[in-house]
Amino acid sequence: MLPPSRAQLGLFFILLFPANIIGLWWAVGSPLVMEPNSICRKMKRLAGKHAELCQTEPEIVNEVSKGARLGLRECQYQFRSRRWNCTNHNKYFGKILQQDIRETAFVYAVTAAGVIHAVTQACSMGELLQCSCEVIRSRFPPHPIAGAGSEASAWEWGGCGDDVEFGYEKSRQFMDARQKKGKSDIRTLIDLHNNEAGRLALKNHMRTECKCHGLSGSCTLTTCWKKMPHFREVGDQLLERFNGAIKVMGGNDGKTLVPVGHSIKPPDQQDLIYSADSPDFCNANRKTGSLGTRGRACNSTAMDLGGCDLLCCGRGHREEAVVFQENCLCRFHWCCVVQCKKCTVHKEVSLCL
Ligand SMILES: *[C@@H]1O[C@H](CO)[C@@H](O)[C@H](O)[C@H]1NC(C)=O
Ligand SMILES: *[C@@H]1O[C@H](CO)[C@@H](O)[C@H](O)[C@H]1NC(C)=O
User: Fold this and answer.
1) What is the pLDDT of residues 302-351, one digit of tens each?
2) Pair 64, 122 in one domain
3) Do 352 and 236 fall into the same domain?
4) Ligand 1 centroid to 338 CA: how many Å?
5) Residue 292 alpha carbon to ligand 1 centre in Å
6) What one-character DSSP code corresponds to residue 234?
7) Whole-number pLDDT of residue 23
8) Domain that holds residue 58
């Protein structure tokens, strides 16, 4: 196996190493209350760009780490009923990151987008000194929203919008970290492309939100500001790109990527790209990072993803009775308690053999 590229080391740094530390934090309390310096203190041994960022901007490193976790949670949601479900089991997940399969592309893209999201949110909330929310000083009014407000109302930029530029830069700095420019191998090019595709899935889909001001519901003035898309929308979009991911290989000059196959369109900036075919993820395999699907809960009536046929790779499934307690027959008592009974629920689940 080839050594990891620089960009891959960047993601290892953010995703895997803090994951262990995050585990520690969970043991003592919420990761949200820990002091920002702690990630960096634990990372003293690191050298290069990341160590430098730790020293100069520890509070941003903290947001970056939050963003990476946001990306990972979204990956787990989007892949919840697939054979590979984005479980961040350290060793196996590390193997996924070292390849250049579609799944790798998705992880890179969604974490790069998560980082912009977390940093930008912190900026908008006034939690970082380096950035703030965006006050648009454009003289061009926002696009009037169809159906809202009367003809005569005035529109202007106002309020405090999400300024993605700072988060975008930070995502680039952290995710694309390479010590030297130039000598780029094909894998690095692919990783960098997918990082950027993830960032664009967020940046190119900013929303405009508006609010009416005026007496008794009249819209004498409407102010508008920019908002980031919900992260779920970013995840949905990236999943579509995952489904249509484009296979590439290195061009003759060693610096460009060309699509594989003749009828295939060249990838645009927002496409996810990969160079190696995915394993089937049916069986556990340390080399490919597959945990296998044995024991996975599946749906015996569904024929698509998540259905036992597909998920269990034809090995079949068994039914298992599970018993658990659930709140039921809840009643509201004035004022203000809800009292519930405990009911025992019997349920059949299907598990892959
Ligand atoms: C994802 O897969 C792993 C390994 O097969 C399994 O342990 C885990 O429960 C799965 N997660 C979900 C949400 O299905
Ligand atoms: C199983 O799949 C069927 C058909 O797609 C669906 O109607 C049902 O809600 C699914 N059950 C569960 C537990 O997800």
Assistant:
1) 988 889 999 999 999 999 998 988 888 899 888 888 889 999 999 899 99
2) yes
3) no
4) 34
5) 9
6) H
7) 35
8) 6-140+157-208+224-292
- SS3 call for 299: strand
**pTM as predicted:** 0.82
301 CB under 6 A from ligand 2? yes
* 177 in any annotated domain: yes
Candidate from 18-22, 85-89, 204-208, 221-225 with smallest mean pLDDT: 18-22
**Which residues, including other chains, have CB under 8 Å from residue 215's CB and lie 6 or more apart?**
none
| Substitution site in 81, 296, 298, 299 for ligand 2 pocket (most atoms within 8 Å of beta carbon) | 299
**22-31, 258-267, 278-287: which has the highest mean pLDDT?**
278-287
Residues 18-54: pLDDT tens digits? Answer: 444 333 333 322 222 233 455 566 555 555 666 677 7
Pocket test for ligand 1, best of 89, 296, 298 (most atoms within 8 A of CB): 296
**Rounded CA gap, 293 and 79, in Å?**
13
Note whether 155 and 195 are within 8 A (CB). Answer: no
d(CA 128, CA 111): 20
Residue position matching structure tokens 């692919």:
190
